[in-house]
Amino acid sequence: MDLQGERLVVTGGAGFVGSHLADRLVTDNEVVVVDDFRNGRRDWVPDDCELVEGDLTDPDVVAEAITPDVDGVFHFAADKDASADDIDQYRVNNTLTENVVERMDEVGVRNVAFTSSSVVYGEAPRPTPEDYAPLEPISVYGASKLGEEALLSVYAHSHEFTAWVFRFANIVGPRLQLGAVVPDFIDKLSRDPETLEILGDGRQEKSYMHIEDCVDAMCHVVEHADAPVNTYNLGTRTTTSVTTIADIVADEMGLDPDYEFTGGDRGWTGDVPRMRLSIEKLSALGWEPSGSSDDAVRRAVRELVPEHSH
Fold this sequence. Notes:
- The chain is of the alpha/beta class.
- The protein has helices at residues 16-25, 59-65, 87-107, 140-158, 181-191, 211-224, 242-252, 280-284, 293-308; strands spanning 7-11, 30-35, 50-53, 72-75, 111-117, 162-168, 170-172, 195-198, 205-206, 208-210, 229-234, 240-241, 258-261, 274-275.
């Protein structure tokens, strides 16, 4: 899909990833942002975007946003709490996607890009390629993303959709909210510069990618991949431990706190303690990340300290 001169819908477009994508797209396209502001902020929506405020579980909101003149939908709206252990998260996320694709089919919109997650793989060998099987998520969030991917596959193969599915590593950068490790550490150290509580044993190792790289990679894939279903891992070739992130945050804040670990090999029920995605498929399409996981984290810390310091 050519991302110039199109009319594009971004669901969840006032949230972290969605608002950054809307910033990128609105330069060359008409952009409609749909959001209920539970995970996002109104002032993150670019001025030149149209705004549909509401919940995508409401068919009237979906109908207002997705009209026959739309060329493509970037479906990012979701309950994004990866640590939630609540079956309602599965129901809500799949209902959002059901409503979006049903409306697209009804009005003849055939292009959809979707933000999935590395958690669909569960505890898989590393680096994990897109064709790894079986997919065995260990969290409700992972199960919800896998269910949504399956529904998009059906519409791609049976309803002539083109679907782009992005399995994210940990994305960091401006607007990242509490609940993610980097802003959580900044917030904790702002309140208590002497001690930092770290969930688990601190040895959890995952890939981190800066939001600007993430948006650039998504746009590159949408413009260059045209199979019915285009599934791509988005991340870096390196990993960073939770303790290293704590070190980077403390260093950038000029602090030397004592670390207190809650213990165990994972931070919460359903946490995948080690994750590194293969990005060879993305590389073969002609895109490379600009830096390592450590680079992404350090850049994000510098951007997030002003947002989250007290």
